[in-house]
Design brief:
Blueprint lengths: L7 H21 L1 H20 L3 H31 L5 H37 L1
Helix pairs in contact: 1-2, 2-3, 2-4, 3-4
GO molecular function: kinase activity
Family: Belongs to the bacterial diacylglycerol kinase family.
Protein name: Diacylglycerol kinase family protein
Length: about 130
Amino acid sequence: MKNSGFTWRKRLRSFKYAFHGIWLLVRYEHNAWIHCFAAVCVVVAGAVLGLSAAEWIVITFAIGLVLAAEAINSSIEALADLVSPGYNEAIKRTKDLAAGAVLILAIAAAVVGLIVFVPKLIIFVG
């Protein structure tokens, strides 16, 4: 790949491509819909329960990491399907590992959510 140097136009174009990738994720990836729904629920709950700035930072990173992992997983799956449309054990392993990475982050995000929200919910309900 030839690098012909830095220009603001190229940097702006790269943002256009990145936003298109986010749109593709949200528009077509069914698992991303689940993550987005969970993120909306968490943001609403955070607004109602009055999260601190530090809590919002942690929650924002948890949401961002899960969505980024889902985007990487989806791109790996799309590329793998292009390279090997038929069944291939190595492709299956690659896809399973990528999906496992998303699951690990989703579980970690759920734990973060419990750590942040359970004490607030106990106070809110009690």
